[in-house]
Amino acid sequence: MRIYLPLTAPDRASLELASTRLELPAGRAAWAVTASAERDFPGEDLEDLEYEALQDAVHVAYGAGSPTQRAMVIALDVPDAAIGDADDGGAFGVLLGTSASARIASFHVTELDAAAAEADDTDPALLWFDVAEAREALAYLDGAEAAG
């Protein structure tokens, strides 16, 4: 199952080593399109639901940082059996029911910092980075301009 996680300090340490996997503890909050979420939005396209789950994770990532920082969300693949229910987290919030070794699929970094995104009335625009571009994604997160 594809999950979306706001970047944490331990995640960053792994990414700085160019890891293509993250070790995730049981109980970690994530956002995903579960069967339950699909039932809650009948007729919605899976890609649209994944976009909404990603945006939920982005807003949490913004809330965890300073207003002058961009946010990063990591897209990962975990076994379906690792996903547990969450009491909060919106329609797409989940908790990892067991620890899992997750394969990184991509990185998504906001174009705007949190304060600028709050002033904007649209969903935060995201730059997509391949799993092999962890260092570039982190550099952009830290304020370096993305290469064209």
Compose a concise summary of this entry:
With 148 residues, the protein is an alpha+beta fold. Helices cover 32% and strands 28% of the residues. It is globular and about 40 Å long.
Mind explaining what this structure looks like?
The chain is of the alpha+beta class and 148 residues long. The chain has one domain (2-141). It has helices at residues 9-16, 35-40, 46-64, 114-119, 134-141; strands spanning 2-6, 21-24, 29-32, 72-77, 83-85, 93-96, 100-110, 126-130. Strands 1, 2, 3, 4, 5, 6, 7 and 8 form an eight-stranded antiparallel β-sheet that branches. It starts with a strand and ends in a 7-residue tail after the last helix.
Q: Main attributes?
A:
single chain; 148 residues; alpha+beta
Helices and strands in order:
Blueprint: E1 2-6, H1 9-16, E2 21-24, E3 29-32, H2 35-40, H3 46-64, E4 72-77, E5 83-85, E6 93-96, E7 100-110, H4 114-119, E8 126-130, H5 134-141
Antiparallel strand pairs: 1-3, 1-4, 2-7, 3-6, 4-7, 5-6, 7-8
